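request received
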Amino acid sequence: MADTTADLNPRPKSALRRLMQRKLALFGLALIAVVVAGAVFAPWIAPFAPQEQHFDGLTLEGAPLPPDARFILGTDLLGRDLFSRILYGAQTSLVIGVVANSLALTIGTLVGLTAGFFRGWIGAVLMRFTDLMMAFPALLLAICLAAIFKPSLWIVALVIALVNWVQAARVIYTETTSLVERDFIAAERTLGAGTGRILFHHILPHLVPTIIVWGTLGISTTVLLEATLSFLGVGVQPPTPSWGNIIFENQTYFQAAPWLVFLPGAAIILLALAFNLVGDALRDVLDPTQRGRD
Amino acid sequence: MTVAAAPLSGAVAAPDALPVLSVEGLTVSVRTEHGLRPLVRDLSFHVNRGETLAIAGESGSGKSLTSLAIMGLLPFPAVRATAGRIRLGATDLTALPEAQMRRIRGDRIAMIFQEPMSSLNPVLTIGTQLIEAICAHQDVSPSAAQTAALAALTSVRLSHPKRRMAQYPHELSGGMRQRVMIAMALALRPEVLIADEPTTALDVTVQREVLDLLRDLQRDLGTAIILITHDMGVVAEMADRVIVMKSGAMVEQAPVGSLFKAPAKAYTRDLLAAVPRMGQRIERPEPTTAPPVARLQDVIVRFPLKGGLFGRTVQQVHAVEKVSFDIRRGETFALVGESGCGKSTIAKAMVGLVPHQGSITLAGQTLSGLNRDQMKAVRRRVQMVFQDPMAALNPRKTAGDLIAEPLLIHDIGTPDDRRNAAADLMRRVGLSNDQLDRYPHEFSGGQRQRICIARALALKPDLIIADESVSALDVSVQARVLNLLRELQQELGLAYLFISHDMAVVDNISDRVAVMYLGQIVEMGSRAQVFSNPQHPYTQRLIEAVPVPDPAHIRPPGVRLSGDIPSPLYPAGSGPAPVVLQDIGGGHLVAQSWTR
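response:
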C-alpha cells in the first residue's frame, strides 16, 4: 500500500565491467581480436605473399592442392597459398565490414531520424528518396558508382555504404516516428527543450539497440556485397585478396576442392558471429532498464 | 431475455446451496533464480450460483493472477499454480489437461477483460467472432449459430444488432465493444463469468450502462460473477460478497454491507478511507480576487482531415470550440468531461503542443505571435504533469537527471547547483536523496508521479497543468499524491489546471469546475455551484453516474442512460452549434438553452 521503494540493489558497475562479465561477449571480443591481429600482422604471420603463384602449388592435372604441411590450408586454383590469402583478405574484409557498415549506419540514422522527427515535407522528401533507392537495384547502382570512381578499397567501402544505408534509414524512421509520439518527448517539449536536445539526448539513445542490431547484422551483408562487386570486376581489384573474392574466384572448384569455399566462408561467418555476440551484449549493457537483471 | 435461443450447454443447474466454483488453498508462484516466489498465497473462496463475488485490491495484490489461474491461463511455465484446488461443480480444474480445459473455457467459465479493443480480433467482424465462439463449443448449424449470435447482441442492448454483426471492432465505441465482449461471454450461458476490471477503461456514464447491463443479465441468467476491480464504488454497487486482497493474500472476506459498515482489518479501513467520495471535502476560502495566471478566450483547436486528390481539408475534428476561462493565482481549476471531450487538447494547446486559434494568455503574454525565446520564457511559468508517469519519464535517464532537466534546458546554475536543486525537489515531494541515481523503472507508480511533480516544480512555475495525473494510480497512492499537490499549493501559491474524468476526485480538490462536452464548456462555476446545484443535464448525468462507495446508497430511479457521445467530426465549413453560457447567479455559468 505504501509507495515502497523498489528492491534496493547495490550501485551498478560500469558498462564496460558488466560487458566483461558476459562470457559470450568475451568470446566475441576474442574472435574479433584474432581477426584484427591476423589482418594487422599478416605480413609477418603469412608464410607466403598472397599473390605468389607456386609452381608446385597445383597437381599435375592443374587442380588445387588440399591442405598439407607446406600449404596448411591448401592452395587455390592459381596455386596460391590459401592461408596467406585469407590473412591478407582479413584486411580488406575488416575495412569493408567496419568502415562501410558504420558509414551506412550513420547515413541511415541521420536520414531516418530527421525524416521521422520532422515528418512534413522534409520527411516526405527524405523517405521518398529512400524508397527510390530501395527500388533501384542496389547492384546496378554499385556498378555505376564503381564505374565512375576508380575502384580502390576505400571507394568500394564508400560505394557499399551509399547502397546499404537505405534499410537502416527505413527502420530508424519507423522507430523515430513512434518515439516522437511518446509522452516523455511531449514532456520534454513542454519544458522548453530545443530540437537538438530532444533529438540527440532523448530520441537517439532509444535507437541505440536498433542501430547495434543493424550494425552487427550488416557486417556479413557488406562483406558479401563486396565479394559480389569483386566478382563483377568492380570491387577490390585482383590480385588483392578479400574473403568474398576468394570464395567467388574458387567457386568453380567447389566440388573438387571444397575447402577453397568453405574456409573463407567460415571466416566471414565467424566475424559476423563475433560482432553479433558483442552487439547483443552491448545492447543489454547499455540499457538501464536491464540493470540488475544480469 | 432474448438469449433463450441459445440452448443450454454444459450448464448443469446446480442446487443453490452448492458453490458453483470453489478455490481451496490456491498458491500461484513465479519461477525466479532464487526458486519459487509465491504471488498468490493460500487463497480460498467460493462463489454460489447467481452471486457476485468482488475481489478488490490495489495493483500487485494478485487479483488478476487469481482469475487467470481459474481460467488456466497463467503464463506457463514462468508462473503456475503450485498448490491448491480449483473446483468447478464436481470438476477439478487444476488436474485437468489443457485439451479438456479448453472445452470448459468459454463454455462453462467465461471471462471479460479490461480493454475490449485488445480482446477482439481487429480483422474479423463482430458477427464472425461471435459465431466462431458459439461453434467452438456447440454442435450447431451455421444458421443456428447466427441466430444465437444475434440474440446475444440483442440481449446486451446494443443498438442495431443486425448491423453490428457485419461491423469490425474499430467501428464501435469502447462501451459498445465491451458489450460485444459480454455478449460473447454470455452467449454460451457459462456458470461463472470472470470480469477483470470490466469498466476501468470506460467513461463513467458508459461504465454505468455496462454495470447495469451486467446486473440485469445476471438476474436473468443466474450466472455467478467474479468481479475483479480496484474501484470500491463498483464493489459497493455490484457485489454480494467481497474479498479484499493485499500482496497475494486475502485480508478480509465479508458480505458487502458489513465490509463497508464495519471493516474488520486495518488495511480495509485504510483502503476505504482513501477512496475519494463526493461531497466530502473540507471547505476553504475561495481565492476569488487573485489575478489570473492564465486566461483563455475563444480558444479553438481543430484537426483537419485531408482527403481527395489535392489533399484538401474535407472534414475537421472540432476538438475545442470557443472555450474561455480564467485560472487565478493559487486556485485549482478543474476541467471535467469524458474521453474525447477536448479537455486534454486544451492542456496541449496551453503548452504549445498543438496549434490553436483564439487567445491564450499565460503570465501576461499572449501565446500566438511569440518568438522562440519568448515562448521558452513563457514555458517556465507553466508546467505539465502527465497521466502515465512511466511514459512521461525517459526510461534511460536517472531521477536526478530528469528533475534537473528543465534547469539544464533553461541553462540555470552549474551542474552541482542543479544536482542540489534536484535533491531538494526530491525531498520536497517525499522521496529520499539516495534515489537520485535510480532509473524510473526502479520506482513504484506513485513515486514516479512524484518525480514528474518534482520536475514540474523545478522552474518554479505559476501554473501546473495536471492532465489526469492521478487517474493511473491506486486509491491510497492517489490520496497521497493529491495531498502533496494540496500542500505544494498552499506553500508555493501554485495554481492548478486539474483535468480529470473522475468526478469524486474533482469534487475533492477543485475550487472551480468547468464541465466540457464535445469541445465546449456547458457548465462552469465554483465547486459548490456545480456539484450541489448542477444545471446542465450532462453535468447531472456525469455526477449521477459515479459509483458510490456505499452499498446502502440507493440510486434514484432515473432514465436509463444509453447511446454514445456523438462524434466531434464535421465536414469542412460547418461545425457544432455554439453554446452560449449564461450567468445564473454568483458566477455560475450554464449553457443557455438549459437555463430555466
